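Quick one: structure for this chain?
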Amino acid sequence: MIRTLLARAGLVAAAAFAATLLTAAPAAAHGADAPDGTDYRTRATGVTPQRPGLEVRVVEAGARLELTNDTGRAIEVIGYSGEPYLRVGPDGVFENSRSPATYLNRTIAGDTALPAEADPAAPPAWRRIADGSTVRWHDQRALWQESTPPAQVRAAPDREHRVRDWAIPLRDGADPVTIGGTLDWVPPPDAYTWWAVTIVGLLAVGALGLVAAAAPAGGRALSALGALLVVGGALAVGYPVGRELDAGAQGVGGVLVGLLSGQIWSLLTGLGAIAAGWHALSRRPAADFVVTLAGACVALFAGVANAAVFARSIAPVPWSPAVARLMVAVVLITGTGATLAGVLRLHATSRRATNPIPAR
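Got it. Here's what it folds into:
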C-alpha cells in the first residue's frame, strides 16, 4: 500500500515538473521580469504641472511606472534622447518603433540590442500596443542598474540613503510636463534570522509526525497538520494575489489573468494545500500521503519560490515587507513541516505493516 502511494507521488511530481517545463512561457507583459524583491525604493512624487486625470504610480516593487491618462488628450512619454517614446490617449496606447527606449525598456536590465530602425532623430513611427488609457514600462531614470551599490551606500550600508531624485519628461500637446520621483537605498533585513525562525518552526511542525498515528493523540496530530495546511495554503494563494495587485492588476478579472499567466503554480499548490488540509481534518483514507505531497508542493512552489524577500527590504506586494516575509515563512513552515510529519507517519505505518505485533 505504502509503496503504491509513494509510486503515485513520484508520478505526480514528475508530471508537475514536466508541466512546469512545458508551460514556462513568458508571463503577461505587466510582470514579465518583476523582481522578487529589491533594496531600492522607488517613489513617484507627482506630475508637474498637475493635469487633472493624469496619474502616475510605481508598480512591481519599483520595477515599472504606470501612467493612466484620463484627460481626454494624448500624452507623450519622452525617451532618453528627447524623442517621443510612448503615446497614451483616447485612441489607445502606442509606442514609437524608432525610439531606442522602446527596445531598451523591454527588460529591467536594459540590455536589448537596438535594431537598425532605432533612430531618435527620425520621425516617430507609432505602433498600437494596447487599448485603454494605461501603460506600464521600465524606465532607467527611476532605477538603479549598476551591479554595485552607490558609493554612499558602500560606505554605510546599514543606513538609508537618498540615491537620487529623478524626473521623466512628458508632453501634453506642446506643453512640457514632468513626472518627479525619488530613489532610495533601504538596508536589507537579516536573512539568517528569518531562516532560523523558519527552520525551528518547520521542525516543530514536523515533530507532530512522531506521535503514533494509531493512538488518539495521532488523530489529533493529523487534525493539527490539516489545520496548518489550510492556513499555509491560504497564505500561498494570498501572496501571489498581492503580487498581481502590486503589478497594477485591476479588478478580479485582471488579478485572475495575472495569476493564471504568471503565478499559476503558487496558486494551484496553495489551493491544493487547502484541499489537503480539509482532507486531513476529515480523517479520510490516505490522509498522510495527501498531507506529505501537498506540503512538499506548497513549500517548493509558494515558499522557496518567494524566499528572496527574506533578504530584501522591498517586497513586490502592496503591504509591508515584514508582513510579506512572515507570510512566506509561514508557508515554508507549514509546507515543509507537514511534509516531514507525513513522511514520519508513512514510515511508521510501513513498519507496522511489515512487522505486525504478534497476538498473545
